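B., you asked whether I could sanity-check this one before it goes into the benchmark set. Here's the sequence:
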Amino acid sequence: MQKLILLTYFSLFTLSCTEKEKTYEELEAEVLCDVLPEIAKFEIKSFLRLEGVIPPSQVLDTLNYTKKQLDSIKKVEYNDWEKYKRIRKEKSDSIFDLVEKFKRIEFGILDTLRDVEKSKFDKSIYKFSSLGFRGVDLKEFDKCNLKINLVNYKNTFEGEDRNSNNPLVFLTRVLVDENDEKAFFSVLKMYGTYHVFCNFSVKENKWKIEKIIKE
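And here's what the prediction gave me:
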């Protein structure tokens, strides 16, 4: 009888120590938490490439600088282009540094992940070839370096979110392969969609962007 009790206790202890298997949604959120800081950097670099297309002040405003940073840049005459570019680079580098720090940069995403379908050119074998849309909860991004701001769809076209300087992207669901080593999702923007391919780095124990392909 005593042996049976000990065996039962050992079995329960072993089960409690076994890591709980992640749900697909938890795995999906893990991918996004890891790579959204890289997406944020990509977005900032994209805005910087718009120089000459939109006025410099609008580029700066979109980068979500603090008022103090903006004031220091706007003191520079825009006709002194070389000086302007140097100062802007210094300020953008400081933003990149902040992305690496926990919850220092705010980043907006739609509160619903859009449906996604595997491309016929993608040779990876995913657990699902397509996924329907689903809503996301702010708690899913607790571990993300970025301070995530969930935005309701209707608020992207009216009110303060439309006029906000915070970056905002629409994300699709994430396709994850059978070995939890590769993942794919898309980012939808007003100026075009781009597709994000990710790998899991065992060395760093996190998901990393392998490549980004613009549509």
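One thing to flag: DSSP finds six helices and eleven strands in the chain. Otherwise nothing jumped out at me.
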